[in-house]
Amino acid sequence: MYLDNDDERVLAGEFGETRQKMMEILVALGEVYGAEKLVPITSAQVSGASYKTIGRWGLAWLQSLNARAAVPAVLNPIGMPREGWQEFGIDEEFARRQAEVVEAYRKLGIRVECTCTPYYLRITEYGEHLAWSESSAVAYANSVLGARTNREGGPSALAAAIIGKTPYYGLHIVENRRPQVVVEVENGTGPHAGHWGAIGHVAGKKVGNRIPLFEGIRPNRDHLKALGAAMAATGAVALFHVEKITPEARVFTFDTGDLDRVTVTQDEIEALFTETEVEAVAVGCPHCSADELRELAELLRGKTTTKPFYIFAAKGVAKHNPDLVSVIERSGARVIADTCMVVSPRMDEFASIMVDSGKALAYVPGMCGALARIGTRKECVEVATS
């Protein structure tokens, strides 16, 4: 793999041991995937931020590093809200360790805006090279924004943030971004026919790690977010196209004549929806947009919750929509920043959780040890307030 003179000097240790280690990670990754060079990135998003997932050894590794990020970089959700963690029911020992994780990243120059939706915080342009690690963020960046990123692991995203470059392979290369399978969504009139998280949950299992092209659907941006997040969770989809909707499907003409075709049926979608009793309700996986907070505020206006109802959003999004947060929280629901239902130990305390997300439906059983039930946001509000 070609390295320029500055890269060679970093690899030789002239800019410190940490930068040397980070370059070694990138070079090893590039050699594994046959990258011909490194490419500069405009931003990074680093996973491995919750103490629940990285533990004491991950924290020790972070604390051993000594460098600063070379590009704007943010964290994935951590295991608790940085403010009000006591009210959220977080153990003091966990909170202390989580604070140490956050401080370690802060010293490395990573912006402590802990979210799986970094695209709400910074404008990302079509064609930009990124090093993002959270699966739903990667799917959104590639598919909805037309930026270019592979699904990075936590260490490789951190390495890219510190070096400011990432290996040029995979989805950074235009030729590798062509669709590999066509997906048709069966038309139907059922109550969940337009639940994009459910559609993605089914589609991800069918397409695996292939790049799908959807035909005959017209989702908006929040729908696309839900669709991609679910496919990344049940499959390994890092990029998808929607005919006449997503940017590359408008820029390029794809020949789909020889591609496999799969169908997501209404029966498959409806099979995901159950009437199981739940102990708590949680939405915002991925984190809620301002429009989603507005919808929840309207649904909750004048109502009172009867069971724990958590709504997860980036702190920056919640901060810029205080009126919506106020309406939501008057109902007894809580808008929670920095964390999410998947990576917080708080959610491990519930045996059953209702979610509005195909991604959460896939992850909650394994990550939280809880039964997961999916519904629309309207259904989630009805269950939380009944």
List keywords for this structure.
386 residues; alpha/beta; Aconitase, domain 3; 3 domains; five-stranded parallel sheet; four-stranded parallel sheet
Description:
GO terms for molecular function: lyase activity. Belongs to the AcnX type II large subunit family. It catalyses: (R)-5-phosphomevalonate = (2E)-3-methyl-5-phosphooxypent-2-enoate + H2O. Its EC number is 4.2.1.182. With 386 residues, the chain is an alpha/beta fold. It folds into three domains: 5-174, 2-Layer Sandwich (Aconitase, domain 3); 178-271, no CATH class; 280-384, Aconitase, domain 3 (2-Layer Sandwich), CATH 3.30.499.10. The chain has helices at 5-11, 17-32, 51-63, 92-107, 135-145, 154-163, 196-207, 221-234, 247-251, 266-270, 290-300, 315-319, 322-330, 358-368, 377-385, and strands at 38-40, 43-46, 73-75, 111-114, 130-132, 165-167, 181-185, 212-215, 241-242, 260-264, 280-283, 309-312, 334-336, 352-355, 371-374. The strands form four sheets. It has a five-stranded parallel β-sheet with strand order 13-12-11-14-15, sandwiched between helices. The chain has a four-stranded parallel β-sheet with strand order 4-3-2-5. Helix 14 (358-368) links the parallel strand 14 (352-355) and strand 15 (371-374). The relative contact order is 0.13. The mean pLDDT is 96.
How is this fold's topology laid out?
Layout: H1 5-11, H2 17-32, E1 38-40, E2 43-46, H3 51-63, E3 73-75, H4 92-107, E4 111-114, E5 130-132, H5 135-145, H6 154-163, E6 165-167, E7 181-185, H7 196-207, E8 212-215, H8 221-234, E9 241-242, H9 247-251, E10 260-264, H10 266-270, E11 280-283, H11 290-300, E12 309-312, H12 315-319, H13 322-330, E13 334-336, E14 352-355, H14 358-368, E15 371-374, H15 377-385
Protein name: Phosphomevalonate dehydratase large subunit
Keywords: Iron, Isoprene biosynthesis, Lyase
Catalytic activity: (R)-5-phosphomevalonate = (2E)-3-methyl-5-phosphooxypent-2-enoate + H2O
